[in-house]
Design brief:
By secondary structure, this protein is an alpha/beta fold. It has two domains: about 240 residues, Type I PLP-dependent aspartate aminotransferase-like (Major domain) (Aspartate Aminotransferase, domain 2, 3-Layer(aba) Sandwich); about 130 residues, Aspartate Aminotransferase, domain 1, CATH 3.90.1150. The chain has 13 helices and 14 strands. The strands form four sheets. Strands 1-8-7-5 form a four-stranded mixed beta sheet, with helices on both faces. α3 crosses α7 and α9 packs parallel to α13.
């Protein structure tokens, strides 16, 4: 049987929730399940305004659209400037680039592999030097671990720069930081801890943002009996049916997070005797979810590269995956400026993500451990 990296984990109650949605007669992107899902996130994040859309990418797109309209100086001929993490999936910056923004990339710090506040400070100083207004700082929370939001906020707050937090991978993470972002985005994609097969959440204390994003997400229709449009919008709203699926799994969010943390601990203890393997650290400012169990391999010690191990595991029907290739190394983004310390490059060279689904059994984890042990100790 194939072990996937992070497959959907049905709760067993999806059919009941879907039946509730069907009974409501709302099959379109409105309905009681959608309202309930948004209310759930309002309470969970203690943010009064929430919008559920069809993907986290769409949520980022809407937030950036709003910022371009309300924040970018109309007399500045230069494109809006966004500063983002480089160690992340391309969807973190694609919405900004699609909308004509200029993106500067910031390397990682060692504590959590997230945006390095020291390098962010340098990027902001360069923006000041160029008399550039930064539209937003967009840090990504990697593999279920929170970024150092207090340090980032300490840099952005004096400059009145909003933080748009890409928390697509970190639902369920417990952050001990006191600062809050201007807006937060998470994902309900099929490989996340909670999935609706697709979906994203945009949350904020800013009512104007969510009201505008809600309107944009439904083709920007004006409140008129006929179809009146004064700006171009999008078809980004989540359906009532997908909201029902998400709600069925949010009931067990804490158990799902706990299981992923246990899987990571099992890997760590089972492979601790092998020299040359280290693990994604956990920064003091949070308790991460371990959405994916990420290790680092040192080929000079193990005699194996991460790619060697990935191919070996694939041969025995176990899916693993390299850590994200830094955006500044992506061919389509190689022209973007990057404030760099080499951390993301090294993590990419040495990193590998192991199967981490919350539906994995103890025996499944042992199977992965045994294959790695055999490969690295016997050659």
């Amino acid at each position: 049987m194939r072990l996937f990296l992070s497959p959907p984990h049905p709760s067993g109650t999806e059919a009941l929730w879907l039946q509730r949605a069907l009974d409501s007669k709302y099959l379109a992107p409105v309905g009681p399940m959608l309202d309930e899902l948004e209310n759930w996130f309002k309470l969970y994040w203690d943010m009064p305004h929430v919008l559920a859309v069809n993907s986290a990418t769409s949520a980022l797109h809407l937030a950036i659209h709003h910022l371009r309209e309300y924040r970018h100086p109309p007399d500045d001929p230069r494109p809006p400037l966004i500063i983002a993490s480089t160690l992340t999936f391309i969807a973190s910056v694609a919405p900004a680039l699609h909308q004509g923004c200029e993106v500067w990339l910031v390397d990682s710090e060692a504590e959590s592999w997230n945006m390095d506040p020291i390098l962010l400070s340098r990027a902001l100083e360069e923006a000041d030097h160029q008399s550039r207004q930064v539209l937003t700082v967009l840090p990504t929370e990697l593999y279920g671990q929170a970024c150092d939001l207090d340090a980032i906020h300490g840099l952005t707050s004096p400059r009145h720069i909003p933080i748009l937090l890409d928390a697509a991978e970190s639902l369920g993470c417990r952050s001990y930081c006191q600062s809050q972002p201007w807006a937060r985005v998470t994902s309900l994609n099929g490989n996340k801890i909670v999935t609706a097969s697709a979906g994203g959440i945009l949350a904020s204390d800013d009512a104007l943002l969510i009201d505008h994003a809600r309107k944009l997400s439904m083709q920007s229709r004006e409140p008129a009996a006929h179809y009146e449009h004064r700006e171009l919008g999008y078809n980004f709203r989540m359906s009532n049916l997908l909201a029902a699926v998400a709600l069925s799994q949010l009931e067990t969010l804490e158990a799902r997070v706990s299981r992923r943390q246990d899987i990571f601990s099992h890997y760590q203890s089972g492979l601790s005797h092998i020299d040359g393997i280290s693990w994604m650290p956990e920064a003091a400012w949070n308790k991460g979810t371990r959405w994916l169990s990420a290790l680092r391999m040192h080929p000079e010690t193990t005699g194996w590269s991460p790619e060697d191990l990935r191919v070996h595991l694939e041969e025995v029907n176990i899916e693993s995956r390299p850590v994200w290739k830094p955006l500044h190394l992506q061919p389509v983004l190689k022209q973007l400026p990057v404030f760099r310390n080499g951390t993301a490059d090294q993590i990419f060279r040495e990193g590998l993500c192991l199967p981490s689904g919350s539906g994995m059994s103890h025996d499944d984890v042992d199977r992965v451990i045994h294959r790695i042990q055999t490969a690295l100790t016997q050659g």
